[in-house]
Amino acid sequence: MTLLYLVRHGETVDNARHVMQGQTPGQLNENGIRQAEAVAVQLKDVRIDAFVASDLRRSVHTCEIIAAPHNADVVTTPLLRERDWGSFTGKYIPDLSHLNDPALWPKDIESLEAMKRRADKLLTWVREEFPGQVVLAVGHGIINKAIQSVYFQKAMNEIRPMGNAEIRILEL
Predict the structure, then answer these.
(1) Active-site residue list
(2) Strands 50-54 and 134-139: what pairing?
(3) pLDDT per position as a tens digit, 53-86
(4) What CA–CA distance (Å, rounded) separates 24 from 76?
(5) pLDDT tens figures, 42-53
(6) HEC letters along the chain
(7) How far is CA 65 from the centre of its chain?
(8) Nearest Cα to 46, choosing from 139, 134, 123, 113?
């Protein structure tokens, strides 16, 4: 069995400003760095065989901080990237609140089905690449929901959102 520690990246400058980041690199703010450091302390004595992160900077930075006490490298993968929010990227989230019906969204936003296919590929890749190991993977809020949706075979809206630097453990 492979054990997956699924983590959301620490708080970013844009999280604090309520800006839709999508697949932009993002930058941890001071709070986000502290959150990642707290996870590093929490897991410093836990056996972790591999550290994986989305290839977006905010996740890589979070994962590097968590991996530091283990003197481990971080492997990146685009499978863990956040949802591509298309034309919504860079927008102030409260300004989008009236668009709660996806039928009103621009067509350039990654569909939930596409995200769930990517999430399924990620779970398969982790199982095949790290059989019987303990893997810590740092992703993003929506892709982490998609991963759990696939894992638990539940609808996305049935998965509780993850806070910044929150950990969920999945047995693959």
Answers:
(1) 9, 82
(2) parallel
(3) 999 999 999 999 999 999 999 999 999 999 999 9
(4) 15
(5) 999 999 999 999
(6) CCEEEEEECCCEHHHHHCECCCCCCCCECHHHHHHHHHHHHHHCCCCCCEEEEECCHHHHHHHHHHHHHHCCCEEEEHHHCCCCCHHHCCCEHHHHCCCCCHHHCCCCCCCHHHHHHHHHHHHHHHHHHCCCCEEEEEECHHHHHHHHHHHHCCCHHHCCCCCCCCEEEEEC
(7) 15
(8) 134
